[in-house]
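thought: fold this chain, then report.
action: predict
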Amino acid sequence: MAKKIKLKFAFILSSILTIFLILLPNIKAKTEFETIEKGVLTFGTNATFPPFEYLGDDGKVTGFDIELGEAIAEKLGLKAKFIDMSFESILPSVKNKKLDAGIAGLTKTPEREKEAAFSMSYFEGNQFILTKKDRDIKNEKSFENLTVATQVGTTANEIAKKLATKVKNLKLKEYDSNDIMVEDLVQNKLDAVILDEIVSKTKEIKYGDKIKATDGKVIDCPIENSCIACSKENKELLEGINKALTEIKSSKKYNELLKKYMHIDLKEKEKAIKKNGLTEQFSTAFLEKDRWKLYLKGLLVTLTITIISAIIGFFLGSILAILKLTKTKSGKTTIISRIVNIYISIIRGTPVLVQLLIMWLVILKNAKNGILVASIAFGLNSAAYVAEIIRGGINAVDKGQTEACHSMGFSQVSTMYYVVLPQGLKNSIPALCNEFISLLKETAIVGYVALADLTRAAFSISAATYQTFMPLILTAIMYFLVTKLASIILGLIERRLSQ
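observation:
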């Protein structure tokens, strides 16, 4: 009896061991990928490009690319995470390992291959040309003397640039948003727009009485293959994604995704984007599907960055102002004062967007927290302006008070700390209030560093609802109300301190 038990135990143990050895390669394959967040595959995307990626009814990013990314992550034994960001920031963020991969209808080009490695193709498409109803595009010559627009960073943008070298007097304009670009076409500010096929057909439905879509084949637009971008250094992940794509494309899942997102029912789409009155537009863009929550989340991000940046800017700016005013005993400016002056000149002489991108992609390229990076970038920018404001406030203090302090035995530091600086700050309050309000509005560009602020929320809702006017108007109203409230509060503080 004991012998039989031992044999059974040995059989069970050997079976378990055999199963483990069979599964070991798969277990290893699912854990060998290096990702920026353990157990998570982080994708960068641009949720203004339906049906590939857009905001769903639940306020989360959805679309063909999103479900495909989730299926890939599942194959790799990882959880998918999607970060909505500016399209042109995706590849630099992948290159600098802010993201594991980019999935946003990206087409592999020689220029892009310098920045990242690309997977096998998962979808083929073509570019279309949108024009007014009375204009015919038959060939490249049809673009002579026209103003043509494309979204910056897209393959359509590259096509238009090459076209501009061949065609006489073609003027190219670049936009961050394809929604605003098409609106300008409708308003006769543009002659033509080059866009992806499915997006073009959707826009044609919305403005069917004003614009029409022409197949890009008339100007030999090449068939484009959408791929997933990865860091060149993460070859294992790229191989894993290719393997997963191969399995998915040969499965039932892939055909289901195509049917769900790419086989557009034009009549249903027309119903979804039909022209409505202002009340219906407001309901669609704000109330339906609890979209108001997206605005509030975006506003919270905006306020968080603004407040942190203002604190950094105030304290650093105060220090810089004092250092800039330091002089030697002979009355000459010190080396520190000159260094501070150079810093202020550089910051005030360069765009804040450039400073933000340098902070995100170069200086703090290993930082994963976008709010922290944006707060530091805006804080350093604000410090330069605050320094000049406070310096002006200090210079406005009567010099006789400084001389009186010195005659009473006060040191230069004590005089500055107890007498001059408090009065200088008081003189600076009105200008500091204006700087805070300006800072609040400047944060509208944080979408470039993967943050869904108030402005970014408006663009995402615009893509999801096929409306442009109402989301932007609502965003403008929110900015106005917040800045007005800030002005009232800062005004009360100013009056209180004046007493």
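thought: worth noting. The chain has a mean pLDDT of 83.
final: tokens above.
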